[in-house]
Design goal:
single chain, mainly alpha, 3-stranded parallel sheet, transcription
């Protein structure tokens, strides 16, 4: 349970940590250093990997496209393709993804590429697994969610209703922690209304993804006895108006 949701940040235990650190130093022993060096009979390779600034190449390629200089953009793309890979390190993989996007823009196939990607329905379990891997590797998303949820809790401490407009809600991974937190409020939970906004999916059910997210959040709210309403909107974001979200 998220029992500290309405509490302030925990106090710093610097003195206690310092005392423990002093105790640990008394028992510290310097580890035995292993000998390092080349094994006998080994040879130092004379080949050196060429270092390429992929970020600079991507920036120059994008600038060439902005200037409608297709020939120069294609030349940069060839260089980027040569040194990027979907199976390389983080920089090489990222450059490969950007190269795909830049190539689609040069060819004018960006819309078709986006439609092909969005036509594949990704199961919620698969999205959750990917999200967990992302959060484990990069804590910034987790920290931003924590600060946002704590701020909402602090500003709505006395409110009887909370209405959240979430642009790009996807699977709504941010809100279970908030739901747990407001369920602990003395006197009962407020009514939580979430307007989930996302791009429409291709096909005959454009709002299927965001509606499924609403159902998952509804079940989660029932688990913690939080009154809940969901408004699912599948439209382009620039067409959303205040009346679409529905008032509280």
């Amino acid at each position: 349970m998220n029992s500290g949701f309405y509490n302030e940040s925990p106090a710093c235990h610097w003195e206690e940590s310092s005392d423990n650190e002093g105790k640990n130093k008394q028992h510290y022993r310097k580890p035995i250093e292993s000998k390092r060096g080349r094994p006998r009979g080994s040879k130092v390779s004379g080949t050196k990997k060429e270092v390429i600034d992929l970020r600079s190449l991507l920036t120059r390629c994008a600038q060439a496209m902005a200037d409608n200089n297709t020939a120069t953009a294609n030349e940069f793309l060839k260089q980027i393709r040569q040194y990027s890979s979907p199976y390389g390190n983080a920089t090489e993989r990222l450059a490969h993804c950007f190269a795909n996007a830049l190539e689609a823009r040069v060819a004018g196939t960006g819309s078709a590429l986006y439609t092909a990607l969005t036509s594949r329905r990704i199961p919620a379990a698969e999205s959750l697994k990917a999200y967990q891997t992302y959060v484990a590797a990069c804590p910034f998303k987790r920290m931003s969610n924590i600060f946002a949820n704590k701020s909402i809790g602090r500003l709505t401490r006395e409110a009887t209703r909370i209405h959240i407009n979430d642009f790009g809600i996807l699977c709504g991974f941010q809100w279970p922690c908030l739901i747990q937190g407001i369920s602990l409020r003395l006197g009962g939970s407020p009514l939580l209304r979430i307007t989930g906004i996302d791009f429409p999916l291709p096909g005959f059910r454009p709002a299927d993804g965001v509606e499924q997210t609403g159902r998952h959040l509804m079940n989660y709210c029932k688990r913690f006895n939080v009154p809940f309403e969901c408004n699912a909107i599948a439209k382009k974001w620039d067409t959303i108006r205040e009346k679409n979200s529905g008032g509280m």
